[in-house]
Amino acid sequence: xxxxxxxxxxxxxxxxxxxxxxxxxxxxxxxxxxxxxxxxxxxxxxxxxxxxxxxxxxxxxxxxxxxxxxxxxxxxxxxxxxxxxxxxxxxxxxxxxxxxxxxxxxxxxxxxx
Amino acid sequence: xxxxxxxxxxxxxxxxxxxxxxxxxxxxxxxxxxxxxxxxxxxxxxxxxxxxxxxxxxxxxxxxxxxxxxxxxxxxxxxxxxxxxxxxxxxxxxxxxxxxxxxxxxxxxxxxxxxx
Lengths: 113, 116
Prior knowledge:
Chain A is mainly beta and 113 residues long. In chain A, 0% of the residues lie in helices and 46% in strands. In chain A, strands 1, 3, 4, 8, 9 and 10 form a six-stranded mixed sheet that branches. In chain A, strands 2-7-6-5 form a four-stranded antiparallel sheet, with no helix packed on it. Chain B has strands at residues 5-7, 10-13, 19-24, 31-37, 44-50, 53-57, 65-68, 75-79, 88-95, 106-107, 111-115. Chain B is globular.
């Protein structure tokens, strides 16, 4: 299974942008990059995903390096409600014979008021 | 649609007892996953169903664990002869078969197991 590496924790001030990095040097050509977040006492929540091009949605932006060996989740204006553990996940294509999403230990984001 | 439902939310049992958790996915979702999460760790994959077929199972899953999805709707996860190491949050997730949401997992709130 391809691995991801994230910092254990990060801090941000409220209303400022946050860039959460993820390294995935063993990514294969068909692996999708997914981000989920988990608020305290809740199940993980989908944030965004992409394959090669940068992606934007109402929650965040995903910037993918040209060689796809790293990516960055961007929260444009952090709020206190964004305090959570953020997981960067590589999801292999089912044609490879696996359907699972492999979670690492994630980055715990603390937002300061 | 109320999302993914899991029952019970909390279960306390004595070592050696059997426990069963139920997951009701979003109605049109044919893909269903079970994960386990211990304190401070990310969710760990247990098993995957597509409709009623169990297509993938973690090698870490001992034979005390069994999961079913008999009619392709709800699923159950049973743990036999529970051990203290089984104490964890058991998470269920589902996703639809096609469309933009096919790659998006919707998780339930989880079932927390405490084995005394």
